[in-house]
Specification:
alpha/beta; 391 residues; single chain; 2 domains; Aspartate Aminotransferase, domain 2; four-stranded antiparallel sheet; Aspartate Aminotransferase, domain 1; seven-stranded mixed sheet
Length: 391
């Protein structure tokens, strides 16, 4: 690379990534093949529209790239192309979710998602997000005692509020979600059911987390978390008489986006193929095992694990413990100084502000890619404990 300034920064970041223990629950390390597709000449091509229906010429090759990505996405999650449609053009998770609401919910009408502080996402209708400004959003939370989803409470809210769409799927909820119950809630309130499986898509692909496809109308996912692809997103929607997919395709282009990023779509296709292998299934299993060991060890060392444990790739724990420990920000700083990278995170019913909350969130997707196993998790938990208790 001739640009020495950027080259130096890329090398520095590469070195940083290699030298730390990365416990950011939403990050991962992609394969060389994914990087190669991302850095390819496909980035030079414009092509608004969809395969066979474009506004540009010279599309013969990139149309094949997009079709291959679509086919692999459907195959990975066991979907029949006559029953499900897929859009691989969203640039990332937030625009994907925005596209779904734009397509299916008239502005000013109601969406219902989980509060961010309890484990939801900005784009599930938080008031500071456009999704909470353009639409009238109502937010559900976790049960105060169990810190788990209380499906009866969610149902009561849905029936009273009658949202157009209910969003299930989270960024910090560690337990397995009962998709059937969410379907019942959506049916009882006359809402569409959207599942945002961004965090656990790789676990669904690797058969370590229940698939939401039997119950959802729409499923969105990013491709760069447990799925271990490039930064991008996919929207799946049911192909039936409601023709949701036609509205979603139109919301992406011409509604929200311009030309697809074909290099990114190719890299997604590569990752989807990788995720269909037996090795990936083994990986997904190890991710969940590692998270469980980390959670059990931290609990054994005296830390309060939110929700009482984990059934997925992530967990949150209370570092503040009513003033007995550091705040979330201080905890994350202390860990970073010693080479352990996490993010500070709110815990349900947090008494501290989001900028310096009571908890930290950790996940095992990235370190499992680097070959870490249960014995390594025990050591990591001990290191975390030692660092956080140091005055
Ligand atoms: N930033 C992602 C996460 O960390 O979960 C969600 O968008």
């Amino acid at each position: 690379m001739k640009d020495t300034a950027i080259k130096k920064l890329i090398d520095a970041e590469k070195k940083r990534q290699k030298s730390v223990i990365n416990l950011i629950a939403s990050e991962n390390y992609v394969s060389k093949d994914v990087l190669e597709a991302l850095g390819s000449e496909l980035t030079n091509k414009y092509g608004e529209g969809y395969p066979g229906k474009r506004y540009y010429r010279g599309m013969a090759v990139v149309d094949q790239v997009e079709i291959l990505a679509q086919k692999r996405a459907l195959k990975l999650f066991g979907l029949d192309e006559n029953k499900w449609s897929v859009n691989v053009q969203p640039l990332s998770g937030s625009p994907a979710n925005l596209a779904v609401y734009s397509a299916l919910v008239p502005p000013g009408e109601k969406i219902m998602g989980m509060a961010l502080a309890h484990g939801g996402h900005l784009t599930h209708g938080q008031k500071v997000s456009m999704t909470g400004k353009f639409w009238n959003s109502v937010l559900y939370g976790l049960n105060k005692e169990t810190e788990l989803l209380d499906y009866e409470e969610v149902k009561k809210m849905a029936v009273a509020e009658k949202p157009n769409i209910i969003i299930a799927g989270f960024t910090a909820y560690a337990h397995i979600v009962d998709w059937k119950k969410f379907r019942e809630i959506a049916d009882a309130s006359g809402a569409l059911l959207m599942v945002d499986m961004s965090h656990f898509a790789g676990l669904v692909a690797g058969k370590q987390y229940p698939s939401p496809f039997e119950y959802a109308d729409v499923v969105t996912t990013t491709t760069h978390k447990t799925l271990r692809g490039p930064r991008s997103a996919i929207i799946f929607s049911r192909r039936d008489e409601r023709e949701l997919f036609k509205k979603i395709d139109k919301a992406i282009i011409p509604g929200l986006q311009g030309g697809p990023h074909f290099n990114q779509i190719a890299a997604v296709a590569v990752a989807l193929k990788e995720a269909a292998t037996p090795a990936f299934k083994k990986y997904a299993k190890q991710v969940v095992r590692n998270a469980k060991v980390l959670s059990d060890e931290l609990a054994r060392l005296g830390w309060r694990i939110i929700e009482g444990g984990t059934e997925s790739h992530l967990l949150r724990f209370d570092v503040w413990m009513n003033g007995k420990g550091p705040g979330g920000r201080e905890a994350a700083d202390k860990l970073e100084k010693e080479g352990i990278i996490v993010n500070e995170n709110t815990i349900p019913f947090d008494t501290r502000p989001p900028i310096d909350p009571s908890g930290i969130r950790i996940g095992t997707a990235a370190e499992t890619t680097r070959g870490k196993k249960e014995k390594d998790m025990k050591k990591i938990a001990e290191r975390i404990d030692r660092i956080l208790r140091k005055k």
